[in-house]
Amino acid sequence: MRDGRTVAYDLLRAVDARDAYANLLLPKLVKGLDARERAFAAELGYGTLRALGTLDHVLALCSSRPVAGMDPPVRDVLRLGAYQLLRTRVAPHAAVSTSVDLARNVAGPGAAKFVNAVLRRVAERDGDVGAPGYDDDPVGHLAITTAHPRWIVEAFHDALNGDWAETRAALLADDARPEVHLAARPGRIAREGLLASALAAGLEADAGPYSPYAVRLRGGDPGDVPAVRDGSAGVQDEGSQLAALAFARLLGSGRHDVLDLCAGPGGKTALLAGLVKGRLVANELHEHRARLVRDNVRGTRNVVPVTGDALHGPWRPASFDGVLLDAPCTGLGALRRRPEARWRRTPADVAPLAALQRELLAAAVDAVKPGGVVLYVVCSPHPAETRAVVAGVPGTEPVDLAGALPGIADGPSVQLWPHRNGTDAMFVSGLRRIVTESSLHSA
User: Fold this and answer.
1) Sign of CA dihedral 7, 71, 101, 79
2) Is 131 part of a structural domain of the chain?
């Protein structure tokens, strides 16, 4: 019989065996379950995936077998059981007995006995995850107690200027259930109309505190909102909206030719289409993401979708008044929305991505006219992807974002955070291409 617990197990197996994306797969797996079991499946599945490192640490303390050497289906049963014991209100006897039954069904009686023995030891720990003392090893302590790899703890700590208390708050925010943010698309619906549409659909909703186009949902399916179904609004984190809004405000009034250099999946493009007067070229390298861009901007007349390499695009140098670069990144700023991501990324991912970000930023500067604006955006707080990339970019000078994002930015760059702003941890930085004497002569 399928219930929330078995669905959560199936999710864990798919993520482990096929590198599935949990947020894409779970909605398919829960079809046919009632609301209570769907919620239970989400809590167990997403929660276990977020806590994997901590769960494996505890399981290693309670088992004579190395966790990495366990039979994968049995390991996932143990993770699911340990999560229930350590992080839910499920009664310990129920967490153990249901896990034993699940192990018997998927791996046989021998596995059931092993699972029973290990989980009983976990239960005896009474919530103690075996973290090192904070005073002795603050990185290790936070890594275990907040379920993040050490390198991410260190990156957040660096990004927060060495503030350990705020580092802990930022890490804990990754486990908070994220709200869904909607964006009203200018010229198609006002924020007030979008809010009314969400409330009419029976959803709890509020106006976003920062973007004049944002509505935040406190629950429910955004697909139930009529304005989302008809394309006059879309799902878009408010931090992403702020990036598009800052870009449009930096451009100023008048008609502009602008380039969205890495446009997929098209949320910023759709918002910019209503904010920018003039031609908006939306470039995306990957065809499947380019299709999403085209879907998002269907019905707009000023957007020109292009599928091509951002480093060698089909445009002349210095041909745009502004370039928005939402660069590929580690995605450490959206870990709360992608439960398995913190364990898939490694420190080795950072340097190649930072190198690509610098190349793309150089291409963006090359594509913009002297005096034009480049806005660099990544969904990451990692200093190597943020401050280090925009520091000393040849041929540019920083642009103060305070006027574009009043009350949010007080300089050329701003780092948003879930625990501060309720948004993804977006980094936004403004650059202007320097006008030189040679550029004046060539104009």
Assistant:
1) negative
2) no
Alpha carbon distances (Å) from 241 to 62, 178, 182, 208, 424: 46, 16, 9, 11, 11
126-144 pLDDT, tens digit per residue, is 999 999 999 999 999 999 9
Q: 303-307 and 280-284 as β-strands: parallel, antiparallel, unpaired?
A: parallel
Query: Are 71 and 146 in the same domain?
Result: no
In 3D space, the residue among 45, 330, 407, 336 whose CA is nearest the CA of residue 170 turns out to be: 336
The per-residue pLDDT for range 216-248, each reduced to its tens digit, is 999 889 999 999 999 999 999 999 999 999 999
Cα 88 from Cα 81, distance rounded (Å)? 10
Q: Domain range for residue 76?
A: 4-124
**153, 188: one domain:** no
Give me the CATH number covering residue 230. 3.30.70.1170
H helix intervals, 252-347: 267-275, 287-296, 341-344
Residues 160 and 286 in one domain: no
CB burial of residue 352 (10 Å; 0-12, 13-18, 19+):
exposed
Give the residue numbers annotated as catalytic, written as ranges.
379
Q: Please state, in angstroms and as integers, the Cα–Cα distance from residue 5 to each residue in 80, 91, 126, following that order.
A: 8, 14, 22
pTM for the full predicted model: 0.94
Q: What is the DSSP string of 107-158?
A: H-HHHHHHHHHHHHHHHHTTT---PPPTTT-HHHHHHHHTT--HHHHHHHHH
Secondary structure class of 174 (helix, strand, coil): coil
Give the chain's radius of gyration (CA, Å).
24
Which domain CATH number covers 315?
3.40.50.150
Helix/strand/coil for 323:
strand
**Rounded to the nearest 10 degrees, what angle do helices 22-29 and 35-50 cross at?**
160
Instruction: Please report, for the domain that includes residue 71, its CATH number.
Output: 1.10.940.10
